[in-house]
Fold these 2 entries.
Entry 1:
Amino acid sequence: MSISTQIKIPDTSKRKKIETVTIMDVDFINLSQKEFVRDHIQPLLMNQEKCYIVTANPEIVMKIREDRGYQEMVKQATYIVPDGAGVVLASKYMKQPIKERIAGFDLMLDILEFANREALSCYFIGAEEQVNKKAVEEVKKRYPNVRIAGRHHGYFSVKDPEVAERVKLSEPDIVFVALGSPNQDKWITNNLDQFPKGLFMGVGGSFDVLAGEVKRAPDKWIKLNLEWLYRLLKQPFRWKRILKAMEFMIRIIFKRN
Ligand code: UDP
């Protein structure tokens, strides 16, 4: 297990060193969700520091392994969060157990909860226009004190500077980017330098769940580490992703990193 200051963008002097577990060259934080939010996210938001969060499951680890450009982007992340039962399983197999899986969706809700408490402002980029709108409506309902800095659907070129310009003008505390990977990471890393502050997080299909368009697995399935199976049954077109997750496990078992 390696102890490292994985924090590259913000001022690390005020923050505790963070324990990480490295799986296939990806340094995952090894904290419970509660610890992560309490000891890192909340102070960082209160200090108006900048941070970039990647939530990675086995399929994303494989993508990072295979794509040098993606690797370079993820290297800029302040925190890489273990989102996926497979990552936790792999860490146990490697005898460097990660404390718990932190699902990107759950982390997003915890951040919104804190934003609600402190009346922070959030920008929501990504998903189809109707889904984006519905997700933001849901945020307004569930978290009435969150200030909506703005929103934009996700069907634009990540190289187009216009969306970034709009986001910058709104000076948000938090920017959720739901473009799927690696596009959300491309957008964040292309623009991060231009922002003086802000928590930037890639949230994949989370707006679809927030808007009620896609259902998350029932709690029982999540507790049994079977969320991936539920997703596969509901969205069978995702079968290729499961193959990648299987390849990940095979590489871990046979030490073919
Ligand atoms: N999406 C988008 N722009 C695109 C492609 C996708 O905004 O050009 C959105 C899509 O509508 C969905 C999310 O990105 O809301 C990706 O969801 P997915 O479940 O594929 O995310 P992942 O599994 O990659 O985290």
Entry 2:
Amino acid sequence: MLGGMSVRVRYAPSPTGSPHVGNIRTALFNHLFARRHGGVHILRIEDTDRARLVEGCEDEIRESLRYVGVEWQEGDGVGGAHGPYRQSDRKEAGVYEPVWRRMLEEGSAYWAFDTPEELEEMREFQQINKKPTGYFGGVWRDADPAKADEARAAGKPGVVRLKVPRGETIVLDDAIRGRIEYDSNLVDDPVLIKADGMPTYHFAAMVDDRLMGITHVFRGEEWISSAPKHLVLFRSLGWEPPVFVHVPVIKGKDGAKLSKRHGDTACLDFRRAGYLSGALANFIALIGWAPGGDREVMSMDEMAEAFDLKGIQPSPGVFDLDKLNWMNGVYLRQTPTESLYAGAVDYARREETVGYWAKRVPGPGEVDPHVRLKGLRMLAEADPGYALEAVRLEQERVTTLADLGPACSFFFDEEPEFDPKAVEKWFHEPHVPRLLDHLATALETQDQTWTAEACESLVRGAAEALGLEKLGPAVHPTRVALTGRTVGPGLFELMAALGSDRMLARLKRARGKVGVGA
Ligand code: GLU
């Protein structure tokens, strides 16, 4: 409840493209606001622009919402007292017609029959004369209704337009920006009903907001210039408008409006790239909303508890991929290893994961996508007990689920590739053959469980036996011999996870590479 009013909000996507970060943020704000006030969140599909519909997009919308944890209690796929919840179905059900007919009768809307050529001419004239462009009435706004009847009887294609009053100041009291004034002489008369009888966004969305009892309209800032039309529409019908909450645009770190140029922006691409749903939700909600204090890592419950319109900033939100990576790392480390392992296997097996990486053009320094996919495949196919240990050891070190593939691959690849730089640095040291021999002999002759502690004593013992002053010259070549790499989890834990058979095989293989004796 908000001041005695029970909150009803809606997320009203048009299925015209993959939902991106900005769309999903609006959905999240709706979800958080509804939860904060014990209200209802409605999912409404705005599909009146038939030419722009994209096949499969509605599914993608629902899938994206589920992925980030946005819930809706009423609407598409759920039902409710105000259905149907898809605007094309609402049109068929006759929801809109009585409303626009009433507006025509009351004179707050009018028929217009301009041809595309006439509209084009009008636009050119406006541009040449540096006048505001748009439809400000033409010959139809004040035409005798009999003329419109005639045109209709003659079968001319006509549209219904809103009659925006002239010479007025229209005032929007935006929840984030406060008072905004519009000169009604600059607000054109939008089409409400198209020639094919379909309502436009302006009409269908506002009528639905009213009929569905929406109290707060969260939507992108790009709609702020349309707000006066919507206010006029509400007023013409004698309806109280909802509270408008225009949320700021999202920009890249370079200050440009977020777009494909910045990399992934579609919500599901983040799932495909290996981001955890909780981290993505947390990250997106904080673009343009500050919960107060310096809190950043917050669960959905904590965000819902803290969500407040006052925390939404009017300035553009910044999409910072480094921050998402940091946050994902935090979530990944907080995940119990068993769940993380299960999540990684599920991730590795998804077709969309393979599709995503197969298409990926690697940036500088980025792991070859095929190597990544191979690592993920090995992780998914490995013995679960062993793979779990691998994930446990790499959990601290990776950023995304996708990173677990290459990070863990040396566990599963029985002949891990040697990093040439590692070989160059360590395998020419004169003590290395003796070191590897010492370790192999111990593994072969000592019948014991190679715990991390036992492995540590083994390596320390080897260093001593070889008269090494420091542990490094024993640790580093051993790591290279066992993993092919110079970096990775703690050596002794890693040795314990590999177990004695694997260690032995790998030491022998490495021994072949360092030549004989020394
Ligand atoms: N269908 C509109 C869109 O997808 C929604 C705008 C609104 O929320 O009113 O942009």
